[in-house]
């Protein structure tokens, strides 16, 4: 095996490793199993359902209701890498009936909250940065008297740290050098 091939393989592996920083994942974030696989529904005052309409995309979404006196929760424990920063995103639709409220927490800390709003007839996306601890609790809490809150496409992705970006650039740079050296060698041969 030639040194250039070894160098190119190592550079590619370094680049790929750097881009996979902090792998984590939400189980069944689009509710496409047709049920709450991966989630813990807690229907305090009204049933929680997986519904076929309205949905942001795909076939299913979660319908969370609950009364102001007893909001419902939908939660999931997420495996993360300690100290890694992640981008959490989700889509929700809050019917206009009031009173209503929607809160999203990460390990007990509220990262998004609203009261008595109407997202009209369309889903809206929320994106927030969260920090992993190794095992993190994501909780959606909702109430809506007399309507519903819908949730769809919950996702999380690692945000590479500056050192990871530098490692990735070094890997891609090394890959470029290896390709250039290979081409130069091919021309002289």
Q: How many H/I helical runs? A: 2
The ordered string of helix (H) and strand (E) elements is HEEEEEEEEEEEH
**Rg, Å, rounded:** 22 Å
CATH fold descriptor of the largest domain: Jelly Rolls
Poorly predicted runs of 5 or more residues? 7-21, 163-167
Cα separation of the termini: 18 Å
Structural class: alpha+beta
**CATH class wording of the largest domain:** Mainly Beta
Question: Residue-averaged pLDDT, rounded?
Answer: 83
In total, how many domains does the architecture comprise?
2
How much of the sequence is in beta strands?
A: 35-45%
CATH superfamily descriptor of the largest domain: Galactose-binding domain-like
Helical content stands at: 10-25%
Major β-sheet annotation: 6 strands, antiparallel
Second rung of CATH, namely the architecture of the largest domain: Sandwich
What's the overall geometry?
elongated
Characterization of the model:
This protein folds into two domains: 1-21 and 161-189; 23-159, Galactose-binding domain-like (Jelly Rolls, Sandwich). It has two helices and eleven strands. The chain has helices at 3-19, 162-188, and strands at 40-42, 49-51, 61-64, 66-67, 70-79, 85-94, 100-106, 109-115, 124-131, 135-144, 149-158. Strands 1, 4, 5, 7, 8 and 10 form a six-stranded antiparallel β-sheet that branches. Strands 2-3-11-6-9 form a five-stranded antiparallel β-sheet, with no helix packed on it. The radius of gyration is 22 Å and the shape is elongated. The two termini are 18 Å apart.
Short description:
The protein is of the alpha+beta class and 189 residues long.
């Amino acid at each position: 095996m030639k040194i250039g091939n070894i160098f190119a393989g190592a550079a590619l592996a370094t680049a790929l490793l750097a881009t996979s920083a902090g792998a984590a994942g939400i189980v069944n974030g689009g509710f496409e199993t047709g049920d709450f696989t991966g989630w813990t529904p807690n229907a305090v005052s009204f049933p929680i359902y997986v519904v076929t309409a309205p949905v942001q995309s795909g076939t299913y979404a979660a319908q969370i209701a609950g009364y102001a006196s007893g909001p419902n929760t939908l939660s999931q424990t997420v495996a993360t890498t300690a100290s890694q920063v992640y981008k959490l995103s989700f889509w929700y639709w809050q019917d206009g009936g009031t009173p209503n409220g929607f809160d999203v927490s990460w390990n007990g800390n509220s990262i998004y909250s609203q009261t008595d709003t109407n997202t009209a007839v369309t889903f809206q996306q929320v994106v927030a940065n969260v920090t992993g601890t190794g095992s993190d609790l994501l909780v959606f809490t909702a109430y809506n008297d007399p309507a519903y809150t819908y949730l769809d496409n919950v996702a999380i992705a690692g945000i590479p740290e500056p050192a990871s970006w530098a490692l990735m650039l070094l890997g891609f740079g090394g890959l470029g050098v290896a390709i250039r050296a290979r081409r130069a060698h091919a021309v002289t041969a």
